[in-house]
Specification:
single chain; 318 residues; alpha+beta; Pdz3 Domain; 3 domains; four-stranded antiparallel sheet; 33% strand
Length: 318
Amino acid sequence: MADIFGSLFWVLVPFIIMLGILVFVHEFGHFIFAKIFHVKVLTFAFGFGPWLFHKKIGETDYGIKAFPIGGSVQVLGDPTELEGSEEKISPEDEKRALFAQPAWKKLCIFAAGSLMNVALAFGVAPFSYWLGVERSYFEVARANVGIIIPGSPADQAGIKPGDLVLEIDRRKIESFQDMVTTEMLNPGKEMIYTIQRGNSVLEKRVKLGETKDEKAGYSGIFLPGTEPLIGAVQKGSPADRAGLQPDDKILTIDSQPVHFWHEMTGFIQASEGRPLAFEIQRGSQKLNLQIQPEYRASEKRYMVGIEQKIPTVFVKYG
């Protein structure tokens, strides 16, 4: 349950912040165009609800409201607020009321909010690309074959470490993630892998395996050199029963150093189901856990029920 709430938190909070920015910029568009056309602006606030703080500067009240998400603007004579209102407009202010403006000015003021959102998008996107965009390492790495699980579909097809996957069933493979996604969507299917081995281009027929739980296809190909950091623990698995958690880092297995993810999978396969002593790093703590791998006939290998945390990299496009 805690994991669910934690996941919701990291989804909802950024969403609320971004929504707040969009609304504030939208309202700022109405505000700035009303000022340009000398329409009287009564209030302009960050947030909504009752005032927390406000100060009148000139003819406009500026401030912060109780719920600091988005923004709000109130102009004199807004037709959407006049219905049922007892607002009295003095004769000297009437010419500055929104309803008294020519149609083209009202259209500009109403459209300004959306135009500001478009301007924000065009302004932020180039900056983001210049600053750098966080991408999964698997999304940018080429489909280089680093490790092959012994007996896996790729191993049986004759694919070797050092090969580069160029195409699958005549479709160009752009990245390692592209290859994995293609495999996952085709469980049990025989596919033609076009690979580069040195200066030679070869074709290999790979009959993909199928995971029991997710019903996803796999070949048994892994990238080299990714660290043994846990991204997820399958519920009810040996790792779950032993107490492994996401973000744990595996340091040793049976006192043997583990530097990369593929080394860990090698230890698990070699165990043939006997209990293994895991030393892990959890924050500033080092813990020792006993985990007994289980054989999954559907995948023809021993597993403990953990998924790798995908490393990320910043990619600059400018």
